[in-house]
Amino acid sequence: MPSRKKPLRPAEWPAAVIGMGLMGHSIAACLLAAGHPVTGVTRSAAQHRGTPARIRRLLREMAREGMLRRDPAKLMANFTLTEDYSRLAGCRIVLESIVEDIETKKAIYRAIEDVVPRTAIIGSNTSSIPLTLLQEGARHPDRFVGVHWDEPAHITCFMEIIMGRATAERFARQTLALAALWGKEPSLLRRDVRGFITNRISYAMFREACHLVDSGVCTFEDVDRSLRNDVGWWMPFAGPFRYMDLMGVEAYYRVMKDLLPELNKDPGIPPAIAKVVESGGKGIASGRGFYRYTKAEAEQWEREFLKFNYEIRKLTGKYSTRLKKIK
């Protein structure tokens, strides 16, 4: 009889997260919830004394929302915060989530490769730098993969696994298997392209949205309202290809002939977003973006967004389970 592959067990896969910012916290929470021992690495443990408490709060939140059945306090016993890269010696997967700067990331990779086993996976959460560039100069570039998360990383089902030019397929496949244990529905990019899948499609949409406002066709509110009640209505149920199947592909074929030539293709930053950023607007964080927010309004939008994430995960999970049965 053919031998069965041994299932991956998170407890046997010590993991590390490099960078304890907002996403580093939620990535660590996701890994702990899956059962990994996790080491968080930061430049200054003294400045991140509150990190364990923040991660514990995320785990309690997951338990409260029905995403976690284990005791958050017991899971936190598997978390270590350190500045010392030698503590990664036993890690089988290391996930980097730091500033988007090639040289800074490469310096981190050198420190990682000095201590981890040859078979350890090194993953980058970069959203804009091609993985192939990050592999250059690595001691073992074949074990580098892009692991693109979305915030809040401990809630969403999203994940993109990217193969750089030198990535060995076995490391990509291992990462895909681990991602499923993290509660993700990962997509595999077999070729390294800037922006991956979602960023390329999202930014095409953002550019057209800005163009419509800049052209005087409509307002920010009009764009948000239309997209929320059309694309936003069906997207959690079906991606674009499934949706075109449901609606009838021929209609899209006919519309594309006339519409695509008229869509905006300007490679420059749209005036609508340039005006916001260059005048100091950052969005909710500064109380001013495309909209204005009082402190109370900003806090309420953040609370509601978090609640929405939990609710949409439950809804999409319900339909995903049902639809898998008819594949």
Please tell me about this protein's structure.
It is a single chain. The protein is globular. The mean pLDDT is 95. The chain folds into two domains: 10-189, Rossmann fold; 201-293, N-(1-d-carboxylethyl)-l-norvaline Dehydrogenase, domain 2 (Orthogonal Bundle). It is α/β, with parallel strands linked by helices and 327 residues long. Helix 1 crosses helix 2 (51-64). Helix 5 links the parallel strand 5 (121-124) and strand 6. Helices cover 46% and strands 10% of the residues.
Please outline the helices and strands.
Elements (H helix, E strand, L loop, with lengths): L14 E4 L3 H13 L3 E4 L9 H14 L7 H5 L2 E4 L10 E4 L5 H12 L7 E4 L6 H5 L8 E5 L11 E4 L5 H13 L5 E3 L8 H17 L5 H10 L1 H4 L5 H8 L1 H11 L11 H8 L16 H30 L3
Parallel strand pairs: 1-2, 1-4, 2-3, 4-5, 5-6, 7-8
Antiparallel strand pairs: 6-7
The helix-and-strand class reads alpha/beta
Q: How much helical structure, as a percent, in the residues? A: 40-55%
| Stretches with pLDDT under 50, minimum 5 residues | none
- Radius of gyration over all CA atoms, rounded: 21 Å
CATH superfamily of the largest domain: NAD(P)-binding Rossmann-like Domain
Could you tell me the strand content as a percent range? 5-15%
CATH top level assignment of the largest domain: Alpha Beta
Q: What is the CATH third-level topology name of the largest domain?
A: Rossmann fold
N to C succession of SSEs = EHEHHEEHEHEEHEHHHHHHH
Q: How many separate helices?
A: 13
Largest sheet: 8 strands, mixed
